[in-house]
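TICKET: design request
STATUS: open
ATTACHED STRUCTURE:
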């Protein structure tokens, strides 16, 4: 495609697993030259993280998914010689990302103050689990633990269910996206002032921000949010908001007027409730609705609901989703050509620039694959 917005920028990524690398991925999608600084011999710990034992060449599918279109440069941060090389790269770079525990970068002499002294224009961006202060600062910043400690696991599931975590690493993904926001803001500021910046985020703060609606309501009322007894979709929203079992699957029903819903579904029992009942009698309404829709198919009910202009959709799994024209027309898939001719189908960058989708077939790098190239092209060392 035409020139990407971050072409010409160099990003040094001292990161592993998901949060930091996901931020580096988006910067690479935007055209930045992202160089992973990895430990010789082992590299990013995410290289060997198996997901259902699916692997490609010598790196995990997760690693390939979030490290495509990057370069790998190996350096031992405990080696004086390697640190000298890394500091020379810092002189040439625009952005540094790391997601190490608090104190690690200080130990190797690559904390913000040291890096800023080398390159005052550097945008230095770091992710931690719980921040640099407080009794939890040294706890492991792992996604499931963060979801559990921030109350997020009480937003899903029904009232009497055990806490339910998201089925994905939501803290890592959110924090990585927010880090990119901070980096882009700092780059705009640098363009105006020629000064770098320190951008700090923690997984905990990202998840607290994610729950702004629930936490604001809690601070205002002093009441803990209450999940629906059945078909919970959002603790703060009234009936019919939720997911309902049908004869052959499930349908999701969002906000809607209760009388209009009763008419669309031809449900006399539902018509006995008023709009004022939809929160106070939330579970009773959902119980009536659940009993009514389980006797016919999802397609039948979706057709009836759409005829009345109500917000509802069928619940799809990935197979049915990816076969649907609504999915295919988005062209969200791209193929990575990995080592030895292996191919991985993954998602593309979801952002379009000037109407153009961003695709890249460049796979994640092999460990140390670009040492020679980086030394020659950036540091003029042959």
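STATUS: resolved
RESOLUTION: sequence designed for all positions
ATTACHED SEQUENCE:
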């Amino acid at each position: 495609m035409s020139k990407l917005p971050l072409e010409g920028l160099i990003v040094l990524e001292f990161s592993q697993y998901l949060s930091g690398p996901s931020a580096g991925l988006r910067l690479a999608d935007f055209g930045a030259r992202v160089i992973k600084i990895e430990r010789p011999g082992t590299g990013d710990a995410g290289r060997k993280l198996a997901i259902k034992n699916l692997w490609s060449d010598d790196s995990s599918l997760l690693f390939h998914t979030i490290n495509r279109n990057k370069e790998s440069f190996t350096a031992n941060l405990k080696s004086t010689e390697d640190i000298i090389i890394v500091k020379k790269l810092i002189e040439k770079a625009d952005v540094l990302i790391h997601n190490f525990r608090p104190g690690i970068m200080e130990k190797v002499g690559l904390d913000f103050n040291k890096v800023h002294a080398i390159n005052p224009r550097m945008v230095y961006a770091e992710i931690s689990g719980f921040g640099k202060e407080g009794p939890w600062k040294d706890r492991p910043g792992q996604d499931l633990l963060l979801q559990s400690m921030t109350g997020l696991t009480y937003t899903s599931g029904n009232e009497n269910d055990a806490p339910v975590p998201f089925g994905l690493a939501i803290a890592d993904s959110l924090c990585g996206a927010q880090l990119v926001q901070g980096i882009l803001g700092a780059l705009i500021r640098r363009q105006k002032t020629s000064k770098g910046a320190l951008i700090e985020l923690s997984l905990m703060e990202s998840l607290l921000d994610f729950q702004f609606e629930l936490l604001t309501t809690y601070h205002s009322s002093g009441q803990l949010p209450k999940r629906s007894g059945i078909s919970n979709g959002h603790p703060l929203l009234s009936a019919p908001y939720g997911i309902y079992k049908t004869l052959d699957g499930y349908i999701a029903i969002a906000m809607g007027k209760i009388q209009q819903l009763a008419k669309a579904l031809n449900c006399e029992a539902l018509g006995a409730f008023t709009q004022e009942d939809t929160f106070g009698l939330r579970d009773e309404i959902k119980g009536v609705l659940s009993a009514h829709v389980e006797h016919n198919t999802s397609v039948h009910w979706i057709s009836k609901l759409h005829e009345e202009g109500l917000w509802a959709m069928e619940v799809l799994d990935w197979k049915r989703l990816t076969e649907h024209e609504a999915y295919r027309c988005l062209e969200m898939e791209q193929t990575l050509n990995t080592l030895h001719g292996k191919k991985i189908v993954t998602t593309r960058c979801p952002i379009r620039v000037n109407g153009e989708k961003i695709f890249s077939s460049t796979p994640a790098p092999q460990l140390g694959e670009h040492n020679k190239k980086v030394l020659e092209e950036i540091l003029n060392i042959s």
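CLOSING REMARK: The chain has a mean pLDDT of 95. The first strand starts at residue 10 and ends at 14.
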